[in-house]
Amino acid sequence: MRNKRLFILMIGLIVFIALMGFTLGRKRLTWPEKFINDAVGTAQGVLYRPVGAVADFFRDIGRLSDVYKENELLRQTVAQYTQDQIRFNSLEAENKRLQEALNFTDRQKQLDNYRYLIAQVVGTTSNPYEKTIKINLGSRDGVKAEMAVTTTDGLVGIVSHVSTFTSTVKLVTDLDESSSKGMPVSATVLGKETQSFGIIQYDEESGTLQMTKIDERDPLAVGDKVITSGLGNVFPKGIVIGTVESRQVGDFGLTHTAIITPSAKFDHLREVFVVVVPDVDGP
């Protein structure tokens, strides 16, 4: 029995070797081999398509995830760039304003002996009957009541109340000489100081500044630059108020009245100057 098994094993080995030698030397396949190869190829093709589709699906999901991460990173970069651009524009605008303020003080030093304390506007009133702003300078900084306040463009108003760290400024549009809350702003014309004179007040009905009590022989004309005259010992001389827009005869025909366009931009007050005259002790 044992010899029979050994004999069968040897016969099988001989047949296998013979078949290997027979097939290795041939270039053409027999029909059974072709059938087996075609069957295997067909089965591989049937299995490869769904497997490939599934693999492509998961590969696309991975790519979509990468695209989403890239888009999120781009959005964050754009948002950061926008914030940086806004911050840059804000700093550029502030630097421009401060440079104008520096040029303003240097220019004024050549005209008079006043000192200018730069202050930030930290608040405004919403009361239409009392037009004031709050600044971040107070008594510790040398600010006192009835000091004039201006910008690089023109007169803003006068300090009405002073605290230790802040002060309240009454706007020139609230300085009505005919009321108990106001005081006269005597004015003249730049280049015609010895000939022109008038009083500045605010007309609530028209919403404009008016220069009243102008002599009929006064040479004041449309386009002239109106400045403080220094009379009255309240507003220092030479602070720009505005420009003459028109001139007409007054109510009683004895004097003339002029409409003045303010130089200061009251809706965009950020930095202002408190004017310190030489006879006022500064900080």
UniProtKB/TrEMBL annotation:
Residues 81-108 form a coiled coil. Keywords: Cell shape, Coiled coil, Membrane, Transmembrane, Transmembrane helix. Residues 121-275 form the Rod shape-determining protein MreC beta-barrel core domain. It holds the Pfam family MreC. The keyword Coiled coil applies. The keyword Membrane applies. The chain crosses the membrane at residues 6-25. Involved in formation and maintenance of cell shape. Belongs to the MreC family. PANTHER family: CELL SHAPE-DETERMINING PROTEIN MREC. This is Cell shape-determining protein MreC. It comes from Cohnella yongneupensis. The lineage of its organism: Bacteria, Bacillati, Bacillota, Bacilli, Bacillales. The gene is mreC.
